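CORE FACILITY INTAKE
Project code: CF-77B
Contact: R.S. (postdoc)
Sample description: multi-component assembly, two entities in total
Requested service: structural model of the whole complex
Turnaround: standard
Below are the sequence entries exactly as provided by the requester. Do not edit them.
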Amino acid sequence: MSGFLLRRLAQSIVLLWIVSMIGFALLHLTPGGPLSQFTNTPGMTDEDLQRLTAQMGLDRPLPVQYLEWFGRLLTGDWGRSYRDDTPVLLVIGSRLGATLQLMVTATLIAVLVGGFIGVVGAVRRYSFFDQLVTVGAMIALSIPTFWFGLMVIYVFSVKLGWLPPGNISPVGNESLIVFLHHLIGPSMVLGLVTTAIWSRFMRSSMLDVINQDYVRTARAKGVSERIVLVRHVLRNALLPMITIAGLEVPTLLSGALVTETVFTWPGMGRLFLDSIGYRDYPVVMGLLTFTAILVIIGNLLADVLYVVADPRIRLQ
Amino acid sequence: MSAPGVNASGLATSGEGPLLQVRDLTVEFRGQTGRVAAVNGVSFDVRPGETLALVGESGSGKSVTSLAIMRLIGKAGGTRIGGQILLRRRNGATVDLLAASDPEIREIRGTEIAMVFQEPMTSLNPVHTIGAQVAEGIVFHRRISRRAALAEAVELLDLVGIPEPRRRIDSFPHQLSGGMRQRAMIAVALACKPGLLIADEPTTALDVTIQAQILELMQRLQRQTGMSIVFITHNLGVVAEVADRVLVMYAGRIVEQAPVVPLFGQPLMPYTQGLLRSVPRLDMAGGVHEELHAIPGNVPDPTAMPPGCAFHPRCAHFQPTVCDGAVPALEAADPDHSVRCARWREVSRRVPASQPVPA
């Protein structure tokens, strides 16, 4: 186990290095820069700008800048925001909670609702319900997140007035109920795609198992259909779902970007978009690295969980 | 003319009647081109304590018959099951398994009829321990604690000859060899002491030395428990070893039915004769290099059954109109030997009586 973890750690560092390099290159290829906003500021001369550029180290060759950034990252120094000089980790930390709340809620919806739909769809294959949710899943996967978000706000906030149109909670009223009330809309939107994906994979995973010989053995024992379905079919059908869950982390993170923007949710996704707008290189690179780490951790967790759940798999 | 067995369709109520009576069992699946009868009007009895072998090639309907007895054939997709399968229950009542309610079937499965499947590699659940899988039926049917059921599982594993049973109940299927897994499967089947064990080619997936061990095990268990066994196989060597009576199936129908000695000694149906001649024998290995006999042709396509006797396209004794007219009836050649062949009287006379006879 520890050998496995060490090897995965080494792989992860290589992966982070590649991801951050590509991110860095793309970020610096984007026109403009952190000082562009000052080009037309009265009283700001070209000399001033050049001096600032040199001060920030932005005049040096890109590879040098990158290596410097990566070297500092390895020592634990994530840099400081250009905007307010706050350490990047603190900036991310202040937004992490909101995004995680959204992701966890969306995942819960996906696992419970999507899982239920998938199980019933497989057990009652080709039934009206199955065909209905199959079409529903296709629609859900085809809807753009931003449009669905706007529709949820339009219907539930503007027309019906059931849900707040955005934000995490009004100033001065931060009770749990108010927070949960604000959470419904965005987690519904973020969870939609994941729910659809989960229901599809769950259904096909169940169908893979449902005709296995050992399910027939279980039926031949005369145990109840509920035991057959839960202990023998579902238990085995959940195994591949662990991997699917691990793979869902990037989907959720990119979904959060749009959802948070639509619902003015103060999470990492909105921070990312804002920081790109300001060309706040340290924060953007920090977020990129941080989300890459989240994805790696998600997949690592999935692998470890798989070992716990499937006695045939051993880590080496 | 009615087949023997069919006329004995009076419901057995008590005492020494048959344990299981299959009457005119028909299983039809819906194919792309219409209905296909995998089993067509099959009737037979299983007596208490006997071993009945169901013999036939792949596609003869023998496995479908066994699954129908367990009622493990889904009704989905237009599958139609007809006839009666009458089981004399422990409490003396006779129940038609095809008409029984789902709860009653669940009550019977495992406790009165149990089944051992062909593939020990895939018939055990990979994520549960052997002990849990053996104990599962016990816990469910007898409502005893898991701990007590696991203690019984240890005894069962010991009974089926698995070494170190106390340690093995915590093993997972992948940690056991094929032969050990089949022993575990037998332990699962025997967990609730069924009166009838259906074994669907239980030794086919195993290598020969292990096959012999499993056969011995089943015979020993039968002696100990007095259960009846329906043994499904295409291996006549196995039949000679274990069976009391033999039922030969071809294309969904019974074509010959007899106790094992007369069947091997005086087979009446040309198909049975062909099967027996295609068994390799040691006395053939002498000076003469006789080629091993093979029945020409293939099992007919169930969607395009030949008219009359389904075996006629492959039969050396084929005669037009006699054989491809009507489906021959199952006739009694002897009180306990029946055959489905229009020409069995002529055919049987020509067969040399030198077939292998089991000891």
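Facility notes:
- Chain A touches chain B through 23 residues (CB under 8 Å).
- Residues 202 and 284 of chain A are 35 Å apart (CA to CA).
Invoice: internal transfer
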